[in-house]
Amino acid sequence: MNAPTVTDAGWRVLGERYEPGRVWGDHIGGQLAGTTMSFASSLALPGGAELPAAAVTAVGVRADLTRRGVLTELMRAQLDEVRRRGEAAAMLHASETAIYGRFGYGVATRSRTVALETARAVPRERAPGGGRVRLVDVDEAAEILPGLYRDLGVVRAGMIARPPTWWRSHLARRELHGDYAVVAVHSDPDGVDDGFAVWVPGGNDYRFGDGRTTLRLLDLHAAGPDATAALWWFLLGVDLADEVVAIERPLDEPLEWWLADSRQCRVRDVYDGLWVRPVDVPAMLRGRSYGTAEPVVLEVRDGLLPENAGCYLVAPDGVESTGREPQLSVDVAELAALLFGEARPSTLAEANLLEAHDPKALDRADRLFAALERSWCGTHF
């Protein structure tokens, strides 16, 4: 992997991310063999409940000390600590999809990368927009953005809280990545800030061999379609940029519907976003809302945290533990997809990832676990 050498200033930024008591290391023969860490955050569930959660990152094992159980011990110790802290879930962005399922993590959200040519991607008549967009420097952004993100709220399932240390590393790109962030803030017609965008200008990995210059959008959050669209129109109007490439955008962002030519929104990739590991299954099940259908008895299996295992009566008005025989059974890793509406119970059953003891319960479960809006994280860590 190509990455710039971290400078002394970069290490100072990275060091702030390490929270005391949340960093784990495993040693073999006196040598550090692997690490993992987390920071305190929270996670929104369908219906608006926000539960405490651990954001897991910096997971790695030395290349010459793999296949010795290092990662398993680190994951087990970390999950036990997350549970002791009273956090309902652990969450991460997976470098490889084959690693974390065996530890109970499952895909909770997905994202997409889109590319738009600035010369051709123009708004259709009556497209949303308006207000004012202004550029701010990184120091001002560090003052404005954390509060603005907090005020906008984690309004969509899968979104997480961003601690101050996350913001510092997010904006300190020169120290960490050798490039720099550009930030714009949107204000509504009354002058109230209600959205922002963070991007990296052309150059480095973002300049293609044909001389085209790409603006790479890293982060965009706004209060509604007018502010979101206005930020997009601003980005597409930046001089000397031939293309805007946006990473980790929601699958249901209506860009295609805002453009005069919908084909100018080119989807380059769709991929898993946030992986969630329920650590307190009852709290996670009770934290989300449910659709209208007859109740279903769901069994959750958890070999790593057996205290999570059990049967739960899922009904429109809530969830309770039950001694009744299960109608559906699922491993805790696949529970994440159900909790966040990423997959229907019937879809998991077709993939042999959910066992239907009573096939008639599948239709009811589909309606109970349906989510009105696609889950999306929008925060990389």
From TrEMBL:
Family of this protein: Belongs to the acetyltransferase Eis family.
UniProt keywords, alphabetically: Acyltransferase, Transferase
BP-aspect Gene Ontology terms: aminoglycoside antibiotic catabolic process
Active site (record annotation): 100 (proton donor), 381 (proton acceptor)
SUPFAM superfamilies: Acyl-CoA N-acyltransferases (Nat), SCP-like
Subunit structure: Homohexamer; trimer of dimers.
Residue span, Eis-like acetyltransferase domain: 158-270
Pfam entry (one): Acetyltransf_9
Segments forming domain Enhanced intracellular survival protein: 281-377
Acyltransferase recorded as keyword: yes
Molecular function as annotated in GO: aminoglycoside N-acetyltransferase activity
Protein name: Predicted acetyltransferase
Record bears the keyword Repeat: no
Residues that coordinate or bind acetyl-CoA: 59-61, 67-72, 95-96
Gene3D superfamilies named in the record: 3.40.630.30, SCP2 sterol-binding domain (3.30.1050.10)
